[in-house]
Amino acid sequence: MRRPGPGFGGGGNRARRGASLAARFGVGLSNLWRRRASEGWRRPPPESRTPVPLEGWDTYALAQRDAFDTQIRNEREVAQVLTAFMAGGPLEDAPLWHLGFLMHWRAEHLGAETARADHARDRDAPWAEAVWDADGALRPLVEIDQRLLALSRKAWRRQVGLPNGAAEWAP
Q1: What's the pTM value of the predicted model, to 2 decimals?
Q2: Beta bridge partners of residue 132, listed in sequence order
């Protein structure tokens, strides 16, 4: 004969959990339910329960601190590089993903003369068509980002960890 599952009078796992709790508190199962009702026992809401990491809190905290330190170090390095370019330094080693932003920022803050010098210096670069139109005018920033991404599709996919053949719709 098949026994009914949880919610159908058979108890299932709930009865076993109740029995183990009753044994832990040294009371009968019916007394356990009465105690629960009289004392208003409630489970905390699922969003307030924080699962314990498998490696333990100390190891988890160390790993999170290492990841945080690495992120801060990388952000500071990028900030130093970008600051040098924004101050009018040469763009030879500029990060490709930030090139459109840098060109727009330099044109806006350092003036038209710097923008013309940037175009004259870099018009033969492999990415120049993505940044300037045929007349030498800067393209809109969103368009530059899209064109640079299309130009460097393989590098972007490698950077974000997309293997060949996966999510082919992505740049």
Answers
A1: 0.54
A2: 138
